[in-house]
Design goal:
It catalyses: N(6)-[(R)-dihydrolipoyl]-L-lysyl-[protein] + NAD(+) = N(6)-[(R)-lipoyl]-L-lysyl-[protein] + NADH + H(+). Its cofactor is FAD. Its EC number is 1.8.1.4. This protein is an alpha/beta fold. It has three domains: about 5-150 and about 275-335, FAD/NAD(P)-binding domain (3-Layer(bba) Sandwich), CATH 3.50.50; about 160-270, FAD/NAD(P)-binding domain; about 355-460, FAD/NAD-linked reductase, C-terminal dimerisation domain (Enolase-like, domain 1), CATH 3.30.390.30. The chain contains 14 helices and 24 strands. The strands form six sheets. Strands 1, 2, 3, 4, 5, 6 and 19 form a seven-stranded mixed sheet that branches. The chain has a five-stranded parallel sheet with strand order 8-15-9-10-11. A five-stranded antiparallel sheet has the order 20-21-24-23-22, sandwiched between helices.
Length: about 475
Amino acid sequence: MASQYDVIVVGSGPGGYVAAIRASQLGMKTAVIERESLGGICLNWGCIPTKALLKSAQVFEYIKHSADYGITISGESQADFGAVIKRSRGVADSMSKGVQFLMKKNKIDVINGVGKVKPGKKIDVTAADGKVTEYEAKHIIIATGGRARQLPAAPFDGVKIIEYRKAMSLEKRPDSMLVIGSGAIGVEFAYVYASMGTKVTIVEFLPSVVPVEDEDISKELAKQYKKMGIDIYTKSEVTKVDTSGKGCKIVVKTPDGEKTFEADVVLSAAGVVANIENIGLEEVGITVDRGKIVTDDYYRTNVEGYYAIGDVTKGQALAHVASAEGIICVEKIAGLPHVEPLNYNNIPGCTYCTPEIASVGYTEKAAREAGYELKVGKFPFTASGKAKAAGTPEGFVKVIFDAKYGEFLGAHFIGNNVTEMIAEVVAARKLETTAEEILKSVHPHPTMSESIKDATEAAYGEAIHL
């Protein structure tokens, strides 16, 4: 007879393991199925190890510019690329072990293998040795995550055309790299490698880098990257990559005509696709639309007892989104009262390049297209005492309010450590805070966060520090 559970979660990424822990907290017998390492892509190959790489790059930048802070370092500083990669992998391993601890603490069974859902609320799990074991659950949550999108013109070979996982584990730093795509993954790796001495070129199909961000943010990042020596080609498309020689010859269609580039390595960072193949969706009859599993606001699929969260669904492919979805899904399963659907227009987005980017809510363009009359304020970090003292005056805070009611429509930051500031705006929007309340909230000085109040003052013609 198959092992029976209240909840089985397929996948242990930030959606899956969080859902499993919440289910256990609510008294349900829970198991997680994982084919690789606990923590999924985020902990092992995404969010966490990339931040370790970015911190190493940032430290190296500080060392190179130590004289700006009155500190002299004798001799030439060098980045030990192998040691940087090793540190990153160590951080990831540590975090994965942390999830192992959480599974034991919450009495969650970890089932190693590849899961495939079946009709009748059953799952087959194929272990590494090929043995297949069947499990049953009252509720099955699919949280199998996503993987790098592969472009026809640049198929991965793991050596010269790589995706983010390989970019985190290269044995040697390439002298040159062409990055396809300028979303968070593309610009973060561009910064890491450029900081350590690699000549980086970015090719973006859309009109601006970090294209989901506010236009002012995109322009500022492009300006800062060009200062670093990163070449950027927007409205451009890679049409062919020839890897037959020592490196890569890349043909790019640009607004100025076709150009050919040479690089040691091509990093394809052109988005993410959901891992929904060969997991039994067709056999169960679960509806899929445009590569995503269709769910309602509580992540229930069209088949009773089957749910889906994270990158396999329509929401933003972000770790914190998957975690929030997992909690909502499980709390609804448990029958908790007043479970509130997720507001996807109040999800913070963070990009951890230097300068960092953080945003939430409407961009200025989207707010105008939605019919709002706006009050928009900007506060440059060149006027921030904390930013100037830190030697990082690049960037700004931009806030967007509805002119009629003062509703906080959106905020867009670019600068040092701004990813630690955005939560204030998320909470303010959740609480339906108005501009007036931001203006009357005393912010500490000197901090980067007081720039939110300064930008709000600018929006309402009350700027003190501009």
